[in-house]
Amino acid sequence: MNPYRSFAVLIYVTDIEKQAVMRMFDWHELVIEGDDQKYMETLLDKNGRSLRVICAQQDEMGMTASATLTSKMVHHFIPEYVIMPGIAAGTGGMGGSEDQEYGDVLFATSVWNFSNGKYVSPNGAEIVFGEVGFNPRPTVVKVSGDYIDKVRDYVESKENQYLTHFGPLASGTAVVANKSVLQKQVMTGFVDTKGVEMEGYGVAYAATHAMEPKPHVIIAKSVCDYADERKDDKYQRFAAYTSCGLVKDLLERVLEYTGI
Q1: What is the pLDDT of residue 96?
Q2: Alpha-carbon distance 34 to 109, whole Å?
């Protein structure tokens, strides 16, 4: 089996997320011949080694773009970790016992596609929106491994300064700013879903279906709104900051590199 050739790749979407990622390390541009994607690279000194970390921005929102970019980066750089920091809508504890605040980090233990299904007439449909019915057929990618336990241990330690919630993260093909959609289409699928966004499923799917050596997946996005009618961008910068802050700590203090 080929060994890992880089420590981690980071994938982000919005310009606000890009700004937060750029503040994590001292990056420089990396050009790959035959690929017009813009990549940035840094070397992270860890345990006496200089480890490569590469980042890139999707050219559009959504799971198709995230899966495509993930596949390219895994092919180019053979990373041990594929990481997506950024912003997400929190569920506000609608389905579980945990309350959420702006800036809380949502760490995915699974990612599921809540848009997958069939639109039908409302008669006999599992979910009804006025004159439209929807029968969901969600697909799920589980995120697991010993590294998740190490992340949990760190999050629960006194060193960590970012409040973090572990659980399912829901990905969809459109932005959700409607409480009814959140309640009917998301929280009925996996009642303990921690947040909603548009890219994590594509990242997790591409990474888990990559050739060996398969990378580990980390989706860690922070709450910037609650996917309801009050949705705005007021807390996006703060959410991007806390997400990238935790990811930076994980890279520097927690995650181990086993490659060459």
Answers
A1: 47
A2: 35
